[in-house]
Design goal:
Bound molecules: adenosine-5'-triphosphate
Keywords: ATP-binding, DNA damage, DNA repair, DNA-binding, Exonuclease, Helicase, Hydrolase, Isomerase, Nuclease, Nucleotide-binding
Domain UvrD-like helicase C-terminal: 506-553
Shape: globular
Structural class: alpha/beta
Helix content: 40-55%
Strand content: 15-25%
EC number: 5.6.2.3
Domain RecBCD enzyme subunit RecD N-terminal: 28-116
Distance between the termini: 36 Å
InterPro entries: Coronavir_polyprotein_1ab (IPR050534), P-loop_NTPase (IPR027417), RecD (IPR006344), RecD_N (IPR049550), RecD_N_sf (IPR041851), UvrD-like_helicase_C (IPR027785)
């Protein structure tokens, strides 16, 4: 982790009134003021004045903030690059084990060197328990109808995946972009609907869900598209009119709390089949809420790409499930490997990134071809100007003559993706820079947020307007008479700019925000090699957003640093799932 010392004594990031190791680490930029305050408060409440315990609480809080479910005390020192000294792990662990915070009405849980805050420990145990207590295999053998649903050559992977998901009550279905996950899901749903009909049962209640509104809208469209391709009209009729929604909606959001839902263990979801797409973006907490709300006999299909960036909130549940369940012999993971969508070399590049082979990644990038381009530079401004300005001018021109469809089509042609929001490699900087170039080129200043050809990204769901977080749009018309045209999943929507308040300019976007979307050409701007955001998962996610061309702008060092640095989210879930170690500890403690 790169950190910078906080020199100014009035810096708001400094925790006031604190001394000792916590203060030092806060000054060194290793701990945030919030980590320090929580640690002090919690230890004071428990009457524990051991500074080692306070330090452990602070790093546990910090771990959750950076996406981990727990902290490995033995690994803190090794993962820290700031030159700070840390306690000896054995001594540290013993101090924590002796704390009333662990032994009393536990606020902390220590398992080996894994230290958990209570809430996350409970959620991890619950997810493990709920998953492992779901019924195991039902029918053995190949389901009838496979050949009807997937009659064509080349669908072996989908056939195998659907066959597996028919026989298991819980299936994790993994695959990179365009590997036919949605196609497999459509086939599976057709098989389940047929089986219900043949058994004289009512049609299965199917819940399709995704973590974000945009992903849910895309899922609905993709599943409907694949259902429409099913060869047998009876299959198409059985699955007519499927809809998808966000996980929050499926579980029933409540106005009073964002952590609890209308559906839970005592008020289960009515569905017979629940399919979750983009599961890599689902946090541990959301997975806990989903699993407790499912009826035990409901079928669960978790679809996603475990190599992508994990959820914004704590957990790497999909990757943990693939890892943990993958080592059991009573659950099988359905894996799709062959991409049916993008250029062969983009697939090869994505695979080399996933495998951590930086040599191969650099070789592929330098070799280049019609799908791959490497602009090897530490001065990206000039090449980016050449790339971005003509596109921005094209959008402006289409927008000014009122050609909304053309403007929206241009928008899908290219995306500039950045790792950061702020700073010289950040989205904000490049959005401003493109606007400056536009002003220089046209001689017209940009004085308002809204201008002809302004590309924008919707940043909040608005069910009333039918636009979702992640939808893109363009301001079309003459200055002063602009309309915001949004490329919503069901078709373009034309709105007054005043109605779409939650938007960001989209000359550039973060890789995190790009998850779940694609563009014909993608340019990814890599930050300095020591940026802590620069990771294998980030580069993989960026590269797999491209349909036809991926262009990497940065230095060889940054490429290698990205490929070598893996996001290591500490969690005990994979280990628990593998070992089948559920809630015995939790109930004993309750
Ligand atoms: N076995 C196959 N052979 C040929 N084409 C296929 C096959 N499976 C799927 N396709 C087609 O490839 C495209 C991508 O498939 P699909 O949308 O199911 O993939 P996906 O994994 O869900 O993609 P993403 O995760 O990127 O949304 C679709 O047009 C689909 O019809």
């Amino acid at each position: 982790m790169t950190t910078s010392p906080l020199a100014d004594p009035y810096d708001a990031r400094l925790a006031l009134g604190v001394t000792g190791p916590l203060a030092e680490l806060n000054r060194a930029g290793v701990l945030e003021a919030a980590d320090v305050h929580v640690a002090r408060r919690v230890t004071a409440l428990a009457g524990d004045d051991d500074p080692l315990v306070a330090l452990a609480v602070a790093v546990a809080v910090r771990a959750v903030r950076s996406g981990s479910v727990c902290v490995r005390l033995a690994e803190v020192a090794a993962e820290e690059e700031s030159g700070t000294t840390w306690p000896d792990p054995g001594v540290w662990q013993a101090a924590v084990a002796a704390s009333p915070l662990v032994s009393g009405p536990a606020l902390l849980h220590l398992e080996g060197d894994r230290l958990y805050l209570d809430r996350y420990w409970r959620e991890e145990l619950q997810v493990c328990d709920d998953l492992l207590s779901r019924p195991r295999d039902e029918v053995a053998g190949e389901p009838t109808g496979l050949a009807r649903v997937f009659p064509a050559e080349g669908y072996d992977e989908q056939r195998a995946a659907a066959a597996l998901a028919v026989t298991q009550s819980t299936t994790v279905l993994t695959g990179g972009p365009g590997t036919g996950k949605t196609t497999a899901v459509a086939g599976l749903l057709a098989l389940l609907a047929q089986a219900a009909e043949e058994a004289g049962d009512p049609a299965p209640r199917i819940g399709l869900a995704a973590p974000t509104g945009k992903a849910a809208a895309r899922l609905e469209q993709a599943v409907r598209g694949e259902v429409a391709k099913l060869p047998d009209p009876a299959d198409r009729a059985r699955l007519d009119g499927l809809t998808a929604m966000t996980l929050h909606r499926l579980l029933g959001s409540r106005p009073d709390t964002s952590a609890r839902f209308r559906h839970h263990r005592d008020n289960r979801l009515p569905h017979d089949v629940v399919v979750v797409d983009e599961t890599s973006m689902v946090s541990l907490t959301m997975m806990a809420r989903l699993l407790e709300a499912l009826r035990p006999e409901a079928r669960l299909v978790l679809v996603g790409d475990p190599d992508q960036l994990a959820s914004v909130e704590a957990g790497a549940v999909l990757a943990d499930m693939v890892d943990g369940l993958g080592q059991r012999d009573d659950v099988r993971i359905a894996r799709l490997a062959t991409s049916h969508r993008f250029g062969r070399t983009i697939g090869a590049l994505a695979a080399a990134i996933r495998d951590g082979d930086d040599e191969e990644v650099v070789t592929l990038l330098r070799r280049g071809d019609e799908n791959l381009e490497f602009i090897e530079t530490d001065a990206p401004a000039e090449p980016l100007r050449d790339l971005l300005l003509p596109r921005a001018l094209g959008l402006r021109e289409a927008a000014q003559v009122g050609e909304a469809d053309r403007a929206l089509a241009l928008l899908d042609q290219h995306r500039l993706l950045c790792a950061h929001r702020e700073g010289p490699f950040g989205v904000r900087h490049w959005n401003r820079q493109v606007e400056r170039w536009l002003s220089e080129e046209t001689g017209e200043g940009i004085w308002s947020d809204w201008y002809p050809g302004r590309p924008f990204l919707v940043t909040a769901n608005d069910y009333g307007l039918g636009i979702f977080n992640g939808d893109a749009g363009v301001a079309v018309g003459a200055a002063g008479d602009l309309r915001a045209h949004v490329a919503a999943v069901g078709g373009a929507i034309d709105l007054s700019p005043a109605r779409v308040s939650d938007v960001d300019t989209l000359h550039a976007m973060t890789i995190h925000k790009s998850q779940g979307s694609q563009a014909r050409e993608v340019t990814v701007l890599l930050p300095d090699p020591d940026s802590r955001l620069l990771t294998r998962e980030l580069l993989y996610t960026a590269v797999t957003r491209a349909e036809k061309l991926i262009r990497v702008v940065g230095t060889e060092e940054s490429v290698r640093a990205a490929v070598r640095r893996q996001v290591r989210r500490a969690s005990g879930l994979a280990e628990r799932l593998r070992a089948g170690q559920g809630n015995t500890a939790a109930t004993a403690d309750d």
